[in-house]
Amino acid sequence: MNRALDVAVAGGALVVASPLLGLAALAIKLDDGGPVLYRQTRVGKDGSDFDLLKLRTMVVGAETQGAGAAVNRGDARITRAGRALRRLSLDELPQLWNVIRGDMSIVGPRPTLRYQVEQYDEQQRRRLEVKPGITGWAQIHGRAALPWRDRIALDVWYVEHRSPGVDLKILLRTPLALFGGTYKGKTGGWTAPG
């Protein structure tokens, strides 16, 4: 999607989602009193870092406990409010602000962590040629149910074949993909190459 369309879609979606965001913020605050937003450094276009925004769904300091950055279904670090937000993928709504800021696009490969990017081979690094997205080709083809290597291959396919028609197909299929789950074992589907 082009930048103007990204901003228009993200801005409109933020307006429509604002009541949901307000309710989610209240639920998070009532749950444990901690911060509403969670920021995590992710890798964007051309390998540049940015702060990804999410609604906080886990206890404060969760990255230093248990499985660290990986999250699995039933993870004890997920809060009560967090379970509902994750089930409906509402925790991703603040990324609309990442789109408005220019860090992300509506459609593109999901942004990953630096330690994962450092292990990409030359072909896999192609996924960094476009802005990361809120939804993408890998998301409509299985999300976290796919092995990590397959997700990256689908993202590279998107980079090589992106078009307004492909973006539209992704947008139309995203609502169905939301019900496919977001968990994939103790490492979130990530295994080191080799």
Distance between the termini: 34 Å
Shape: globular
Quick check: average pLDDT?
Answer: 88
Oligomeric state: single chain
- Give the helix level as a range of percent: 25-40%
Order of helices and strands: HEEHHEHEHH
**Going across the major beta sheet, what is the strand order?**
1-2
**Uncertain ranges:** 182-194
Quickly list its features:
alpha+beta; 4 strands; two-stranded parallel ribbon; two-stranded antiparallel ribbon; 40% helix
Task: Tell me what you see in this structure.
- With 194 residues, this protein is an alpha+beta fold.
- It is 40% helix and 10% strand.
- The chain is built from six helices and four strands; from the N terminus they run H-E-E-H-H-E-H-E-H-H.
- It has helices at residues 3-32, 80-87, 95-101, 114-117, 148-161, 164-177, and strands spanning 37-43, 49-55, 105-107, 133-135.
- A two-stranded antiparallel sheet has the order 1-2.
- Helix 1 runs antiparallel to helix 2 (80-87) and helix 1 runs antiparallel to helix 3.
Compose a concise summary of this entry:
This protein has 194 residues and is an alpha+beta fold.
Secondary-structure blueprint of this entry?
Layout: H1 3-32, E1 37-43, E2 49-55, H2 80-87, H3 95-101, E3 105-107, H4 114-117, E4 133-135, H5 148-161, H6 164-177
Parallel strand pairs: 3-4
Antiparallel strand pairs: 1-2
Helix pairs in contact: 1-2, 1-3
